[in-house]
Amino acid sequence: MAKPKLALYWAASCGGCEIAVLDIHEKILDVAAAFDIVFWPCAMDFKYQDVRAMEDKSIDLCLFNGSIRNSEAAEIAHMLRAKSKVVVAFGSCALEGGIPGLANLTTKEDILRVVYKDTPSTVTQNGGVYPQTHSKMKEGSIEIPELWETVKSLDQVIDVEYYVPGCPPQPEQIWAVIEHVISGRPLPPKGSILGATDKTCCDECPRDRKEKKIKQFYRPFEIQTDPNECLLDQGMVCMGPATRSGCGALCTKANMPCRGCYGPPPHIVDQGAKMVSALASVIDSTEPEEIERILDQIADPMGTFYRFSLAHSILRRVEKV
Amino acid sequence: MVTINIDGRTVEVPEDTTILKAADQAGVWIPTMCHSEYFEPYGVCRLCSVEVVRGKRSRIVTACNYPIRNGMTIHTNSERVKWLRKVIMEMLISRWPNVKVVKDLAERLGIEKSRFTSLERDESENACILCGMCVNMCNDVVKANVLGFAHTGIERKVVRPFDEKTDQCIVCGSCAHVCPTGHIKMVLEDYRGKKSEFTLGPKTPIYVPTLQAVPRVPVIDAESCIHFQTGGCENCAKVCEPNAINYKMEDEIVEIDVGQVLITTGFDLFDASPMAQYGYGRLDNVYSSLEFESILNSTGPTGGNIVMKNGKEPRAVGIIHCIGSRDTNHHAYCSRVCCMYALKFAHLVRDRTDAAIYQFYIDMRAFGKGYEEFYNRLLDEGVTMIRGKAAEIVEGAWNENGDPSLKIRCEDTLIGKFREIPVDMVVLCNAMEPRKDSDAIRRLFSISKSPDGFFLERHPKLDPTSTATEGVFIAGCSQGPKDIPDTVAQASSAAARILSLISKGEVEIEPVRAMVQDEYCSGCKICNNMCPYGAIEFIEEKKISHVNEALCKGCGTCVAACPSGAMTGNGFTDEQILAELEGLML
Amino acid sequence: MAFEPRIIGFLCNWCSYTGADLAGVSRIKSAPNVRILRTMCSGRVDPAFILKAFQLGADGVIVMGCHLGDCHYQEGNYKTIRRLPFLKRLVKDFGIDPRRLRLEWVSASEGDKFAKIVNEMTEEIRQLGPLKLTVHREIERAIAQP
Ligand code: SF4
Ligand code: SF4
Ligand code: SF4
Ligand code: SF4
Ligand code: FES
Ligand code: FES
């Protein structure tokens, strides 16, 4: 019997997810043994045409990481969708836009301007040039992918079977998912989140917590935190309560507040709004002016509450004003 | 008991008494002047002098303060005593020939004129005879320690500290009360804000609030009671045989567990003084409806006599309706009871006086059972009805003789004429308004108010006694102005509602409750201090939160706070609300 | 066709909903633009509902609750006075004019106030014009080509 076919692809992502796959260490050999890897541009030399030539639904499992930021990623996403039986949005970027999704805070125009014109290290001629999708020159014409105005999560572009959250997903969680597929056990219902639990980060966090009452918020450099007490109790904006558990509370164990990479827990439609609600609820004041003063202490609310989930949040992006 | 001999009679008297008291018991009169049962004997006038015989020796003592001893022999009328009394009385008459107590006493003792001529002769009828009663009263009884004697000999006199007006005086009037000559008088003047006004409050510091009071026992008005100002007096306790008076009683807060509450906090009377045109509080003989009720009350300050401040019967009385009611500057609503009590007032004024009566009304609302009939009867009693709200009350003259009175200026809308009607007394029919502190009560029970400020019923027609809060009922004027029959009806209905719940033994609560879905709760403790009812507890063993459903009232605050989606609210889940939203936005 | 603002009103059951009811039974005229969603307390209003309303095409959102100190559940609206200002900051960061989100206290007796606020807000949103968000277009596109 032929081995099941596996494809891995990275769209707009940092590459951490690919490394995370390698982080399963020697088990990668089991993966190689169990699967016929048909596409993994990061690790092996495949061409798009090879995949295009394959029959529809001939790939058994496709682990897709990265968000959709330009026309190329979208094209490959659609292609892999057609060729794969099971597509997994792998990692926070694919799941909810991730860090690249923060581009939705601004506009394509602004990004291009900063990168191609305003950065001090850029030496411009004729006021700077933006990359063009089509360029003609004497050698012929070239075409590069078009940068999108709005970053999207994978499921906003194609239909997705499963999700594996994490920035990056934790190796043991990756192995658990792969092992499940290898074992041939029945697959969970479509739309399931794999490699994570239904509770939140606080569930795995070893810190002691109290009933919350916050009078003052601190940024990490402003406070020497107690290593045993809940960071939120100490006034750090920890996204743990509104973040799906699965990572083992890595960040809080390293004395940093959870940044929310595992995305919202089930039933939460908008991680940022929910965190706003929860934090506002425990602010210890009933005086409007004092409340405003306390809110002023929260630096970069958008970047804090929507660090990973902006592209997949209710409003998805900031409107140009 | 000890045995003594007074004027040849042997009598048994209690020990520990004075000769004066013993003589009194034996029916023997001894003249006194500086003595009062209110305070300890003072012994300065020496009029009570008697002769006490012991063996062969006899001596003169003052009866008012000389203690009884067993076997004592006392002569109250011996020659020696008579001679002494005569000298004292003659000296008194020579100085104060016209003071009534002195004259009466002299007459009783058969002394007609004095052999002496006093350098300080004072012809006044109200002269101070230096008996010291006022000083003793003020110092021993009242304990205000204002009065005292200054100087000696013929210059001796009763003074206040430094002989000046003093704040130490509590204006109790006890000195004036005991002064036997009327030398001390209470003068009504605007002094330290104590207004010289006819007030309709209790007449004494200890009083039975009304004859209808339940329980019908006296209460002490701590603001005017001497004891509460100086620690003295306690006269009421001295005379109270069952020993029922306890000045140490304090307000207590008693906590009672109840399952249901009926709020019947009533109304406040609209204060008409801001409506300067009616002169309430400024003009004499302009009364609010409740003040007039108290004048009408047979146990009230005037004993039910309808009199003016000067004690005379009014020649005409004006009754003005709708003061503060049906008036967009104050209360837009109709107070519902005024028309009828105004008619009652008119009826009683007609009954008790010969005064002419004018009713100034906007609309006559005689809507209840028998009310219209009463109105018709009043018309036959000769009450003048003027349709039009009085515009102003001014001081005016009754007639050309300048007899002072009031004038009510109004427009009589039925004849389309401006009129000025002279009256002696005006009764304002003040609006009923919500109690000043009703907002505090409202918050205590989480109930609402209607636009008029009265407590809001759950439904104006179908559920007029219950409120938005389970187990809290309202009745009477706390819910809105109403008369006695309506109040009784509403209160009975509320009582019946409460009884039915009591007999059932259990209360049904709304099914809207919060609930923690254990499988999603990670024990972040965000929700734990959300709940005003303390319904959310943290279960240490499971490290998750739990809602006590009996305590939860279903506000959903914790549901909105829970960042894990673990907390969910029956009837108002996220899914339901989001679906509703989608429906609304179609 | 002239622009008719669509406004979502989250009204607490005890004060504001009753107040709106009173406006109705008192026959006070008010703009029909506010679509009312009843919650037991303003404290139940999750900021996500408000964002969702904007996503679904609301041009404005108004949250109404009991006056401070009057909340039927004593303190619910004290949570609201922290959540709404916080969310307002976020709404502004999202590029939505914060005037499109309002918090008002309307008691059961303030039918007239309810009507006044509704009229005012409708007028204000009418001036601001329809709310057009990228997400609206994207959802439309997704519906058009599944
Ligand atoms: S530190 Fe963060 S993750 Fe840990 S308990 Fe506190 S809020 Fe939860
Ligand atoms: S603690 Fe939070 S940010 Fe850190 S890895 Fe876990 S989910 Fe991601
Ligand atoms: S807020 Fe939610 S997750 Fe946190 S303890 Fe309460 S119910 Fe559990
Ligand atoms: S819904 Fe309200 S009453 Fe019920 S547990 Fe939550 S906070 Fe308490
Ligand atoms: S009565 Fe005894 S001395 Fe005056
Ligand atoms: S019940 Fe109205 S705001 Fe809480």
Concise account of the structure shown:
The complex is a heterotrimer of chains A (321), B (586) and C (146). With 321 residues, chain A is an alpha/beta fold.
What does this structure look like?
Chain A is of the alpha/beta class and 321 residues long. Chain A contains 12 helices and 9 strands. Chain A has helices at residues 16-22, 27-34, 48-52, 71-83, 92-96, 108-118, 171-183, 201-204, 250-253, 271-282, 288-296, 301-305; strands spanning 5-10, 36-39, 59-65, 68-70, 84-90, 134-137, 140-143, 147-152, 162-164. In chain A, the strands form 3 sheets. Chain A has a 5-stranded parallel β-sheet with strand order 2-1-3-5-9, sandwiched between helices. In chain A, strands 4-8 form a two-stranded antiparallel ribbon. Chain A is globular, with a radius of gyration of 22 Å. Chain A starts with a strand and ends in a 16-residue tail after the last helix. Chain B is α/β, with parallel strands linked by helices and 586 residues long. Chain C has one domain (7-144): Rossmann fold. A 4-stranded parallel β-sheet of chain C has the order 2-1-3-4, with helices on both faces. In chain C, helix 1 packs across helix 4. The model of chain C has no long low-confidence stretch (mean pLDDT 93). The chains are: A alpha/beta (321), B alpha/beta (586), C alpha/beta (146). The complex binds iron/sulfur cluster (4 copies) and FE2/S2 (inorganic) cluster (FES) (2 copies). One iron/sulfur cluster (SF4) is lined by residues 516, 521-527, 544-545, 562, 564, 566-567 of chain B.
